[in-house]
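Internal tracking record. Fields below are filled automatically when a chain is submitted to the structure queue. Please do not edit lines marked as system-generated. If the sequence contains nonstandard residues, flag them in the REMARKS field before resubmitting.
Queue: standard
Priority: normal
Entity type: single polypeptide chain
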Amino acid sequence: MNFPENVKYSSDHEWVRLEGSEAYVGITDFAQDELGEIVYVDVTSQGENLSQGEVFGSIEAVKTVSDLIMPLSGKVLEVNARLDDAPELVNRDPFGEGWIIRVAVKDPAEMDQLMTASAYKEFTGK
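SYSTEM-GENERATED OUTPUT FOLLOWS
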């Protein structure tokens, strides 16, 4: 199980990597492992301003569908188009090529509400 130190984690199992005033968001290694084989990523919120805690899409695995929850407020600038043809990237590389959205961050202070890698590891019990 991978818990990179360069991202922050939400209790909904999303990760955030801040790069200046923008952030990349995806689901954690723990989440993709729990979901199993990802078959579809559905994000229809591109261009929308969403608040922390709002649903920005869904992720479908062979056995279930789960909502994707915004870990911080912002405008959805981009959806990872590679996931259209290769949703399994979320399984193979959840913190790299399997990122889901790129966001213009509204309030960087919200990052302080998210967990560090060690706190998230403890949260998951891994």
